[in-house]
Design a protein that fits this description.
Layout lengths: L13 E4 L7 E5 L30 H12 L2 E5 L21 E2 L2 E2 L8 H28 L5 E8 L2 E2 L2 E2 L4 E4 L5 H11 L6 E3 L12 H7 L5 E7 L6 H24 L1
Parallel strand pairs: 2-3, 2-6, 6-11, 9-10
Antiparallel strand pairs: 1-3, 4-5, 7-8, 9-11
The structure holds zinc ion.
Zinc ion binds next to loops.
Amino acid sequence: MTEPLLAHDEPHPVTFENEAGRSVFFLTCDHAGRAIPRRLDGLGLPEHETERHIAWDIGIGAVGRQLSRLLDAAVVVQTYSRLVIDCNRDPNVPSSIPEISETTEIPGNRDLGEMARAARISEIFRPYHDTIAAGLDRRAAAGRASVLVALHSFTPVFKGVARPWHAAVLYNRDPRLARSLFKLLSAEDGLVIGDNEPYAVSDQTDYTVPVHGERRGLPHVEIEIRQDQITDPAGQTAWAERLARLLPAAYTEMVRQ
Ligand SMILES: [Zn+2]
């Protein structure tokens, strides 16, 4: 018997709020957290690295929770840093537990043994995705429709290159909801919206949308918001209110087509 990764007094890897919410939308925040299990000793990183975008999606947890309240929608939020294990990657791809992120080496992820890798999967990745799957299963069993909205945020500057988009919609096999949301977001005053950029959904770089959206045949969209837009509470509220207004409109538009 190996020692568990998470001690009893450490936070649970997943919070599931407002499951009884009446909205058709089901929200996820794969990268909302930046906690690191005590046993991993900060992954060998200086504190300031674990506050940067490489550790988490800055601002998105607050946007997701506000959006959940405004829409009366369920929201599933990950507690631990994506540097511990990336909850939006298949655990079989090498970047699941990155040895390098942007240009930062992660000492605590170097030459990780099978047991250590398995513990991160079973104690952090698996409970998170099991929570999403069980929530969606219960809705389906109750005859409730679900529309998956995967929320993320991206850094304004990556490897020295500035990004012009304020936000983006991402998709792969089913672009329906993304396309109608893209139209509505692009019509907002002063917003530059990325259409599958700076990232696009793929089976190698994503997990939540391919597994819980595409495979279940649920309408879905992955939304990326640039982090400088949602660093402070005013920006978080503005984006939550904008998405609470536009997501239902985009879904209505999608259904009509
Ligand atoms: Zn993310």
